[in-house]
């Protein structure tokens, strides 16, 4: 059952209010902490105001954003303090930013680092500067000495990275989207590249590379494994297999550690309504040992683009109509246990997902986002016919 939203006078649970920030560089500009339900509504509304003339922006569902900002539904917000800010000029909403601390990640990596997320700004550097200053000042007061971002607001694969290349087309499901001037705003403030995350495009109207298909079949026979669709009817057992794979396969990346069972369960709950079992391949040895998996989803951004952020009163009818017309998908998670890496397992998972997408009549697929330093995964993505077409950047700044 959905829980009631806080009343306008209630503080957002878990949020630590900061002072209102006024900047002398932009007359009339106010950057204020989000602390009431009305503030949260304004925070969600910001991109709807800024992007209303941008044909490539895809509005998220309001109810999904409410859940993202609610620690009752967002496990990341229960892992440490956080604060959202909204910028106003007079009565106009002109920007927003979220900052927080993932205490679990900091403990595992032995560091004092904050994250920023959900940044938006009108095309005026003074607004961006005031928002970024509010965020980093709040993190300094919490004792942090470094900030990275933009990061996912839910510790998932949504809104990760600033789009720095590939502005000429709409984002695929859960990918970030922003205007090119954000890059200048971040770098002018002092942020520097930490690393890039790459998105690969697949033309599913073309045949798969014969060399790739033959290599997958050879690997399956030589190393005695197979792929199968996820069994959604036995979800808990599948999630245990997924957790087992992630715990063994997670590399030493700077921005990730294996998720907790609570985080996996929460992510599965959010994705379950849009999961297609054949687009979630599980790799197992012929003896039944789980060794890898991936998650691909239909590109529901094609549906959301027609809904204006609202499910009711007519949005649900649009959802039912347009979901039948989806023509692409996104593969966004893949893990293979160490002893089966470089043995064709990831390639087999790719091929399973791409063939399943093609059977559904999809004309394109996206594999994203792959860390630029993940050479093995890049080789597999390219071997399957993928071409880099969008780049998302994670920035860092010493505090």
Draw up the topology in text.
Blueprint: E1 21-22, E2 29-33, H1 37-50, H2 62-68, E3 82-89, E4 92-100, H3 103-109, E5 113-121, H4 125-141, E6 146-149, E7 162-165, H5 181-189, E8 192-203, H6 210-223, E9 225-229, H7 235-249, H8 261-271, E10 281-285, E11 290-298, H9 301-304, H10 315-322, E12 328-336, H11 345-359, E13 364-371, H12 375-383, E14 387-398
Parallel strand pairs: 5-6, 12-13
Antiparallel strand pairs: 1-2, 2-3, 3-4, 4-5, 6-14, 7-14, 8-13, 8-14, 9-10, 10-11, 11-12
Question: How would you describe what is shown here?
Answer:
This protein has two domains: 21-156, Gcn5-related N-acetyltransferase (GNAT) (Aminopeptidase, 3-Layer(aba) Sandwich); 202-391, Aminopeptidase. Helices cover 33% and strands 25% of the residues. It is built from twelve helices and 14 strands. Strands 1, 2, 3, 4, 5, 6, 7, 8, 9, 10, 11, 12, 13 and 14 form a 14-stranded mixed β-sheet that branches.
Radius of gyration: 21 Å
CATH top level assignment of the largest domain:
Alpha Beta
Distinct helical segment count: 12
CATH architectural arrangement of the largest domain:
3-Layer(aba) Sandwich
* Run of helices and strands: EEHHEEHEHEEHEHEHHEEHHEHEHE
Q: How can the largest sheet be summarized?
A: 14 strands, mixed
Number of strands: 14
Shape: globular
* Helix/sheet category: alpha+beta
* Percent of residues in beta strands: 25-35%
Q: What do we call the CATH topology of the largest domain? A: Aminopeptidase
- The N- to C-terminal Cα distance equals 42 Å
Uncertain regions spanning at least 5 consecutive residues? 1-24
CATH H-tier superfamily of the largest domain: Gcn5-related N-acetyltransferase (GNAT)
Helix content: 25-40%
Average pLDDT, all residues: 89
Oligomer: single chain
What is the number of domains? 2
């Amino acid at each position: 059952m959905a829980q009631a939203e806080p009343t306008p006078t209630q503080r957002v649970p878990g949020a630590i209010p900061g002072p209102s920030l006024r900047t002398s560089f932009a007359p009339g500009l106010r950057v204020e902490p989000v602390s009431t339900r009305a503030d949260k509504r304004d925070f969600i509304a910001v991109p709807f105001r800024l992007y209303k003339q941008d044909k490539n922006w895809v509005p998220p569902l309001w109810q999904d954003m409410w859940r993202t900002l609610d620690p009752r539904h967002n496990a990341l917000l229960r892992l440490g303090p956080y604060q959202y800010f909204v910028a106003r000029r007079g009565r106009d909403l002109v920007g927003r930013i979220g900052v927080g601390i993932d205490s679990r990640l900091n403990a595992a990596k032995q560091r004092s680092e904050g994250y920023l997320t959900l940044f938006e700004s009108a095309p005026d550097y003074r607004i961006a500067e005031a928002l970024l200053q509010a965020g980093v000042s709040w993190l300094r007061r919490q004792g942090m000495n470094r900030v990275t971002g933009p990061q996912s607001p839910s510790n998932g694969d949504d809104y990760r990275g600033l789009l720095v290349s590939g502005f000429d087309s709409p984002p695929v499901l859960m990918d970030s989207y922003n205007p090119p001037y954000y890059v200048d705003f971040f770098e002018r403030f002092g942020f520097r590249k930490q690393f890039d995350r790459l998105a690969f495009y697949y033309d599913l109207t073309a045949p798969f590379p014969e060399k790739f298909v033959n290599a997958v079949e050879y690997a399956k026979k030589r190393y005695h494994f197979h792929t199968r669709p996820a069994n959604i009817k036995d979800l808990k057992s599948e999630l245990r297999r997924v957790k087992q794979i992630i715990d063994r396969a997670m590399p030493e990346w700077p921005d990730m550690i294996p998720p907790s069972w609570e985080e996996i369960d929460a992510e599965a709950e959010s994705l379950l309504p849009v999961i297609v079992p054949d687009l979630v391949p599980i790799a197992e040895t012929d003896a039944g040992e789980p060794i890898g998996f991936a998650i691909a989803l239909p590109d529901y951004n094609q549906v959301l683009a027609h809904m204006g952020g609202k499910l009711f009163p007519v949005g649900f009818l649009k959802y039912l109509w347009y979901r039948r017309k989806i023509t692409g998908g996104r593969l966004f998670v893949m893990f293979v246990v160490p002893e089966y890496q470089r043995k064709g397992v990831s390639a087999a998972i790719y091929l399973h997902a791409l063939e399943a997408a093609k059977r559904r009549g999809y004309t394109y697929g996206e594999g994203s986002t792959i860390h630029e330093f993940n050479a093995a995964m890049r080789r597999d993505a390219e071997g399957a016919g993928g071409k880099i077409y969008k780049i998302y950047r994670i920035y860092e700044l010493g505090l």
